[in-house]
């Protein structure tokens, strides 16, 4: 399928899609996992280096904190307006196009000198990084026999990208300065895009209508599937806690009495990566039909971690334990939600992903906004109160689910 007027961008990048791929290369799923991680990491590079970026563009803490919000907002917009195209157009070409635009945005970010430029480029980076969410439902389509295992591998790549971004960003900023974070990332995106161009197979689109009909079809899924509504709302609040925590943690650790540098703050991402490696175990519970139990445990971990952070705000040991279990809780909730929604409609994986992930990242943007607002009003104490309130809402949502073992059931409104 031709990609109309935008094909010249792919040609410019040397990435015109190969339409002859018929055999799945044995390395393609690991490659998709790496590509997804490299792509999605760009949304989170800013978090440990907000203070450095702010000083460079002469912005206050409150002003520069909005960089995270704009990146997540762009990702949310991309989820709704771009990801449904995965059911309508050639996914390989769409991924390569978005990768090209992402490289351009990252290169521009590395030269930004004004706050408005940082805001605009953060929005664009978030928007074009959504190719990671085209790769995941594509992986589900490529391997129907081992779908859970395949999707789990790609999602693990996304988790490592999200969590490893803080480590990489902090270290590079400490050694070379924050601008090199985005310059190096542009190069990494270029490399994985070339590999995807060479090895990613073509998957025929399944939706034959127009773009407006595609969006309407995606929205209709909200009313069609109760499980989708439950998962999306739960994702909103749990990811909101996640983003609120990591955004305000930067200010908490960089202020007195801790006074940590950006590189030291970034090292806490190693703890979160360890939590992400444990989280997929919850997917096995979901495969066995124990979704309700899985969600109760994972959300309970989130609440327990926030309570520890509130009671012991300056204990490094408690902080390490809390980061570990908070990330397990958030990512395990995500994995369980994926297990529930991907079995709802085999023909609408991208659109299901659109509804869920749009809500999910809008929740992240909202969590960042309210986290910054809480920080401004009352510092770390108020920020943890906000996270705890959202955690209570999340556990109430889980307890209100009337059919906890009904993953895959089609439930009308």
Automatic annotation (TrEMBL):
Residues 28-406 form the Major facilitator superfamily (MFS) profile domain. Keywords: Membrane, Transmembrane, Transmembrane helix. The chain crosses the membrane at residues 24-44, 94-112, 118-142, 154-174, 180-200, 231-254, 260-282, 294-312, 318-342, 354-373, 385-401. Pfam families: MFS_1. The keyword Chloroplast does not apply. This is MFS family arabinose efflux permease. It comes from Mucilaginibacter phyllosphaerae.
């Amino acid at each position: 399928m031709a990609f109309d007027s935008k094909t010249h961008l792919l040609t410019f990048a040397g990435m015109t899609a190969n339409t002859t791929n018929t055999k799945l290369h044995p390395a393609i799923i690991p490659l998709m996992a790496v590509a997804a991680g490299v792509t999605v990491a760009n949304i989170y590079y800013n978090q440990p280096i907000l203070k450095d970026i702010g000083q460079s563009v002469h912005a206050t803490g409150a002003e520069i904190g909005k960089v995270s919000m704009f990146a997540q907002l762009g990702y949310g917009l991309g989820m709704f307006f771009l990801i449904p195209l995965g059911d309508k157009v050639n996914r390989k070409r769409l991924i390569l196009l978005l990768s090209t635009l992402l490289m351009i945005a990252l290169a521009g970010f590395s030269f930004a000198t004004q706050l408005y430029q940082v805001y605009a480029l953060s929005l664009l980076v978030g928007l074009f990084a959504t190719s990671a969410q085209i790769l995941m439902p594509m992986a589900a389509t490529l391997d129907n026999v081992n779908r859970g295992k395949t999707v789990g591998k790609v999602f693990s790549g996304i988790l490592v990208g999200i969590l490893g971004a803080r480590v990489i960003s902090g270290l590079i900023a400490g050694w070379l300065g924050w601008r090199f974070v985005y310059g190096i990332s542009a190069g990494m995106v270029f490399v994985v895009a070339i590999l995807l161009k060479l090895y990613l197979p073509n998957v025929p689109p399944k939706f034959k209508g127009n773009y407006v009909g595609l969006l309407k079809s995606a929205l209709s899924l909200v009313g069609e599937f109760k499980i989708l509504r439950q998962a999306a709302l739960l994702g909103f609040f749990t990811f909101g806690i996640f983003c609120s925590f990591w955004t305000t943690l930067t200010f908490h650790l960089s202020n007195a009495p801790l006074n940590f540098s950006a590189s030291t703050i970034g090292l806490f991402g190693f703890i979160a990566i360890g939590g992400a490696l444990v989280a997929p175990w919850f997917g096995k519970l979901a495969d066995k039909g124990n979704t309700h139990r899985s969600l109760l445990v994972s959300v309970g971990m989130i609440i327990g971690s926030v309570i520890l952070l509130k009671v012991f705000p300056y204990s490094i040991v408690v902080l390490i334990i809390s980061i570990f279990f908070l990330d397990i809780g958030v990512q395990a909730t995500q994995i369980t939600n994926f297990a529930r929604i991907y079995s709802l409609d085999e023909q609408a994986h991208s659109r299901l992903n659109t509804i869920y992930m749009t809500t999910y990242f809008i929740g992240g943007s909202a969590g960042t906004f309210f986290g910054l607002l809480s920080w401004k009003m009352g510092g770390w104490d108020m920020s943890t109160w906000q996270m705890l309130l959202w955690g209570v809402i999340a556990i109430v949502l889980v307890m209100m689910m009337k059919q906890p073992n009904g993953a895959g059931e089609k439930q009308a409104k």
